[in-house]
Amino acid sequence: MKLRGYTVPRTPEGRSSLVPYPPWHYIGAFLVIDYWADPGRTVAFLPDGIDPHPDPGRCAFVAADWQSCSEGGDELVDPSRSQYKEVFVVCSGLLDGEEVTVCSYIWVDRDFALTRGWIQGFPKKLGSIWITRSFGLGGPADPGMAPGARFGATCAAYERRVAQATVTLEHPSRGGPFHNAPPIVNVRHFPRLEAGRHDAPAVHELVRAVSRDRAVSEVWEGSATLELFGAPHEEIDALAPVRIGRGYRFSFAYTVDDLETVRELGA
Amino acid sequence: MKLRGYTVPRTPEGRSSLVPYPPWHYIGAFLVIDYWADPGRTVAFLPDGIDPHPDPGRCAFVAADWQSCSEGGDELVDPSRSQYKEVFVVCSGLLDGEEVTVCSYIWVDRDFALTRGWIQGFPKKLGSIWITRSFGLGGPADPGMAPGARFGATCAAYERRVAQATVTLEHPSRGGPFHNAPPIVNVRHFPRLEAGRHDAPAVHELVRAVSRDRAVSEVWEGSATLELFGAPHEEIDALAPVRIGRGYRFSFAYTVDDLETVRELGA
Amino acid sequence: MKLRGYTVPRTPEGRSSLVPYPPWHYIGAFLVIDYWADPGRTVAFLPDGIDPHPDPGRCAFVAADWQSCSEGGDELVDPSRSQYKEVFVVCSGLLDGEEVTVCSYIWVDRDFALTRGWIQGFPKKLGSIWITRSFGLGGPADPGMAPGARFGATCAAYERRVAQATVTLEHPSRGGPFHNAPPIVNVRHFPRLEAGRHDAPAVHELVRAVSRDRAVSEVWEGSATLELFGAPHEEIDALAPVRIGRGYRFSFAYTVDDLETVRELGA
Amino acid sequence: MKLRGYTVPRTPEGRSSLVPYPPWHYIGAFLVIDYWADPGRTVAFLPDGIDPHPDPGRCAFVAADWQSCSEGGDELVDPSRSQYKEVFVVCSGLLDGEEVTVCSYIWVDRDFALTRGWIQGFPKKLGSIWITRSFGLGGPADPGMAPGARFGATCAAYERRVAQATVTLEHPSRGGPFHNAPPIVNVRHFPRLEAGRHDAPAVHELVRAVSRDRAVSEVWEGSATLELFGAPHEEIDALAPVRIGRGYRFSFAYTVDDLETVRELGA
């Protein structure tokens, strides 16, 4: 096979792939909100192989402001190839009795991150995402990590705002966030386009994220607001909050090499 | 299987898929340039299963300003879901002795079109694409379809211009464009992320595009210019022109329902 | 004065100006909707010097898909410098007893068009605008200019949809659109930043648009829908329709050399 | 005067202005490179009223990743209204014998920041800007503030890369950066569009930036690279480096209330 590269476009030299070979190293600033959606609607988002969680409707909203690179880190000094933002919702469930989360909806603002997400089973669409930043210097434009500091996140897709959230910090957290803490289980899916087989995906498997070298900053927590809006082509309003828990702010880093296939889901 | 939709995100109601089920109906305004790249470098871009074309280095550059929809056409009145632009290069080759073209490089500016392209084997990345338009009304800002009318196309990706082209119309064309006329054969490819199997793609197959209801406007032709630029993460300069043929301007419509798998390419 | 150019950045060679010297030549595809907003709220948008129109609340919504250039037309073959889309609302009024329109709100998607608009008194903000296109070839993705053809326009700004409209064509129009037909009168405004004089703008004058070489295609008309949405930082909902007239589709071209100052508005 | 707001669009309630009234509070992460351009070409960029600097060709390149707000700070939790990035070059000169800098070229990626810049005399165009970030947590994707940490910045405008720079940190700086330290003097300029008076700008004045509540983090310095590229519509290559000094990384905050008019520049 003479064409090279981990993803398309595969080329003679193999340096054009939209996503380079793993490992992929990540670091990001996070805004997380523990919340509960309507239990019945939440269960309906769980893929085959995932059972309902005993805490009905348990979800988390996550907004992340990322920087990432492959081995060697060359993308870091050409930062349009390393930075992206994303907003997602995870629903809680059980895999063979173990607590897991499932990423049901996710928007991201760069193509390499969209594709790298598909490869890991994250059902990414493109969106436009903004997240308040802290600079550690103080003053009226820098919320900082301190009581009363306010952070916001918004996500728009196809010219509509689909999510908006705020977190107002109160104090360092003891153990949170909780709702997105269990391992993520995703559905890797790639369609088939043969005549008569449009409902027999070429790839359809439950996978479990694996990572290493996880690091986290001090976590602050506080009160939160969250709104999720629907559209003719979006069902995220089905996961809108019926009760909102605490909001959190922190930084987080990790590395991904590969993942585990849990089971084939079939057609 | 309770989650529905042709692509992720797959949801209870199935109306959130980034790409809806086919058929997909397309119409677009095209700028095409017949040209020749370095023969050796062009051959190196042909995938397994495709033999070199007897006219060495034969390529075409295409810039297309598209509007598309699925059955029912609802996307047409929410046009951020139906419009996109793309720039691509096809290299000529032979499949079992029959003339075909292979799409070696392609940029597109919308997520639904990127993903719909991947499903059809187009190795799409996101780019920013601009193409001169004709409005049929005349005046200094409307090139029109007339002798001397000038059209340009540019493509940028990751903050660099990667392609720029111009066509200056002379007269209606007798039969062109020629280099992109044979059927397109693509490589559908979706990576695997299991440990130790990163070079064993989950999907890797040669596919042949199938379409129906093709319509084309009158085609005009004229002189052309074309430049393709490289970058550390782009090899499109390997397909830069060594000789430029004629340029063409026209509109084109078609419908895609599915495709034919020609052969499995394996790991 | 050694620095040259019509606008900043002014440079030694004068070829860097965001907006080059006039004349500016324009051509565009238009979607226009004649409508009426709440009369009292509409009058509140009229600047000093403009009296209420005898038809209370008379407004027009306009979505335009433009291509423009300066003398010589070099921007046309580098089309990121010539194409843009905009959405705006004009309110009707009287200037010394003569019917005029005032552009109260306008979004545009490119910097050169934003600045060129400010120079002409259009109160432009950046937005993301999409407008259904017609290609003249037919088929399911091409609405065409024919009975039943549906066109849509959307505008988003700061991550929210602020306007959406549709027009369904019925037949060629006899004389429409009407509400945006009178000449446009704008307020040219440029703020002052001296201490204590923030409310004494450096430029504040009523100006009247002047143009030449106007051309228009056949106009089609039909039924229309229109929604205008507010936000903490947008008051366009104050001009939302209470009654919707007819919608129109056509192409239009003109040239602008300069404008007339009607009167100084002062602090 | 019944319409309200600091800038257009001016409206009945005055909450729609693209730029709200000052004060404006800023905080940002900076990458600065002290360098020298060709002396003759640099002098040609100085506006009337500014004499050449005794250190010929002295310039600075600045890339800034900003968050800003007006009084009250509401934009901070709707962060698309508070965040932007910009890249600029300042040339050194003398104003009445005192060292100053002049901003000769600047790109920014948001409309409110473009307009707020024009009001202060910054000759802003829109661009697409990326700047490596530090997260303070460490790991392969976080350069950190440490010896060997690499930062990059790129700027593209109209589909071309116009600037790229890198800084590799070595140690905390003793006093730098130096080339952008003197006060900025800008030219506030707003064109006239009356017939025959296109070269008699409505506003044309030398202004001096005033600020308060300046704060700066620890500054690190190291080696730097810098490239500035031209285009038919860009002269930034005239300010390309002939010698590169040190590069710097730090955070900076300040507040702007107004500015001082130094002199009228006339037609």
Please give a handful of descriptors for the protein shown.
homotetramer; 267 residues; mainly beta; Acetoacetate decarboxylase-like; 15-stranded mixed β-sheet; 2 helices; 6% helix
Order of helices and strands of chain A: EHEEEEHEEEEEEEEEE
Radius of gyration of chain A: 19 Å
CATH topology of chain A: Acetoacetate decarboxylase-like
CA-CA gap between termini of chain A: 30 Å
The percent of residues in helical segments of chain A reads under 10%
* Number of separate structural domains of chain A: 1
Can you name the CATH architecture of chain A? Beta Barrel
Structural class of chain A: mainly beta
Strand content of chain A: over 45%
Biggest β-sheet of chain A: count, sense, barrel?
15 strands, mixed
Assign the CATH superfamily of chain A. Acetoacetate decarboxylase-like
Shape of chain A: globular
What is the strand tally of chain A? 15
Task: Report on this structure.
4 copies of one chain form a homotetramer. The first copy, chain A, has a 15-stranded mixed β-sheet that branches. The first copy, chain A, is built from 2 helices and 15 strands. The model of chain A has no long low-confidence stretch (mean pLDDT 97). The first copy, chain A, has one domain (31-66, 80-264): Beta Barrel (Acetoacetate decarboxylase-like). The first copy, chain A, has 267 residues and is mostly beta strands. The longest helix of chain A has 10 residues, at 111-120. Helix content of chain A is 6%, strand content 49%. The relative contact order of chain A is 0.21. Chains in contact: A-B, A-C, A-D, B-C, B-D, C-D. At the A-B interface, strand 5, helix 2, strand 6, strand 10 and strand 15 of A face strand 5, helix 2, strand 6, strand 10 and strand 15 of B.
